[in-house]
What does this fold into?
Amino acid sequence: MIRSALVSKVREFGRFNTAVNKTVIETNLDEAAKQFSRDTHIILKTVTKVIEEKFSLGTNEAFKLTIGTAGGGYLVNAVDVVLGAAQNDVTGAALASALQAIVQGIGVGATATTVSYSQSTKKFTLTASAESSVTSITVAPPAAPQTYYDASYKLFGILVSGSIAASAYTGAAAPYCQAEMKLPSDFLEMDEVIYRDEYYRPLQPEIYRWRNDTDGDPDFFSVYAQASGDYIRFTAHPQTIDTRVELRYAYKPSAIATGSAGDALSYPFNASYDLALIFYAIYLTKLGGTPEELQGAFTFKALYNEAKEQAEIDIAAQTGGGYDLTQRGRQGL
It folds into this structure.
């Protein structure tokens, strides 16, 4: 059914007059299509990516830096190092450059201190040998934990603090640089993850994504959201870059632009599921209406659930009854 016909059915079944703007209904149909795809996995996409050494650090993450000088003084006294702009999926060298700009800037003021990254060891190094009379460098979790997430472990592999009585500090290996991967922008919910073409052992969903921080071939995956998008994290942490990872996931159908230009377009579902989209769009539209309409909204949510369950039964029949949506690697946002 084309979008204009869906809009007409939403008005008819929901008993909406022209006071309900057409754009509102069109927007709610887009949301209905997205929800139906998430709930049923009825449209899936497979993409192949490779393990890369990449970092992401947001403006809500920080580490505390202290640089001591001779005689008990400080060049930098317990200052939180925070990026001015988020770095997403960048190399270690690029992130080191961004951190150096902050360390040398007005907020921190260590104008001759450098930050570098070694790809071979996966370690960041703070070097203050060009500063005057530096005797120690200490890296720790942020001084303002109520404001910032801790970046000291992500960057330097420390849990409490790391300190050295010298003018250069090198952290432990950065633990997550090959453990995380940004997901495609149309990702909704994961269906299956295959690591290194090992189809006989798909990765299993891990509920607690910070558990089992070990290195090796992964057995589990978790999905989580950041400001820059959705990410998958592997447990254990892969150690070999360029290893293939095949992702099979339910995806967001492309939104149909509001207005007459989109009236003749359709969503990528079989016409037998049009009622699911209509019922969910009515549910969303009534949620924003009068108290009487709000009461009726949940009737249409129940009708949507029935249509969704029928779609799940259809999928099971098409796959010989072997498709269990509650058990098969399901992870999403």
Q: What stands out?
A: The first strand starts at residue 44 and ends at 50. Residues 55-170 form one domain. The chain has three domains: 3-43+253-332, 45-52+178-251, 55-170. Residues 322-333 have pLDDT under 50 and may be disordered.
